[in-house]
Amino acid sequence: MRNVLDCINAFIPLLSTEYELVLGRKGVSVTLKISFDKKDCFHLMGLQYLADRLELSRDRGKVFDEISDGTITIEKIESSDFYNKIEQRVHFLPLLEQMIDRNPH
């Protein structure tokens, strides 16, 4: 199972990436631009649901940095009573870039 540090490390390259998707049908198209911020990673992991971890209820960008540098440990996050609610998110988030980049058509 992947952990929150895997999420952070996989998310770092996305911080300097912008995706532009053009969706169209019957001659009508819409352009969708997707960019990423450290705060997005926090929410995509679901850390807002770990209500018993007060160190996570601060600036989301700082929480990202503190997980990255080890100030907030994987063990601390995974010991939350609510971690089971976000475990699947954490497992699949490191695959986000791969999922977006994959174009089956």
Written account of the structure:
By secondary structure, this protein is of the alpha+beta class. It has one domain (4-99). Helices cover 40% and strands 15% of the residues. It is built from 6 helices and 2 strands. It has helices spanning 4-11, 38-45, 60-68, 74-78, 87-92, 96-101, and strands at 18-25, 28-35. It has a two-stranded antiparallel sheet. Strand 1 (18-25) and strand 2 (28-35) form a beta hairpin. The radius of gyration is 16 Å and the shape is elongated. The protein starts with a helix and ends with a helix. The mean pLDDT is 95.
Can you describe this structure in just a few lines?
With 105 residues, the protein is an alpha+beta fold. Helices cover 40% and strands 15% of the residues. It is built from 6 helices and 2 strands, in the order H-E-E-H-H-H-H-H.
